[in-house]
Specification:
mainly alpha
Length: about 80
């Protein structure tokens, strides 16, 4: 199935649409708006999805390199 992008004039309208999809058990939703008054949409918010993802090996290595360089610089 191809992705569908939905744009609404207001956050409230978008929340209503997404809540309807959630209630109909649509699972593959990503909410790109910065905020929502609906707690049920927190699980599909892009920021929360990314925050809950595990880092890849490459990301972990880059983070380790950054920390090592900062430690060396501070010493």
């Amino acid at each position: 199935m191809e992705p569908i992008i939905c744009v609404c004039y207001t956050n409230h309208a978008l929340d209503q649409l997404l809540m309807s999809l959630v209630e109909h058990r649509v699972e593959q939703i990503v909410h790109l708006a910065s905020r929502s008054k609906e707690e049920a949409l927190a699980a599909v918010n892009l920021r929360n999805i990314v925050r809950n993802m595990e880092s890849t090996k490459a990301e972990k290595h880059k983070l380790w390199q950054s920390h090592t360089q900062m430690d060396e610089h501070l010493n």
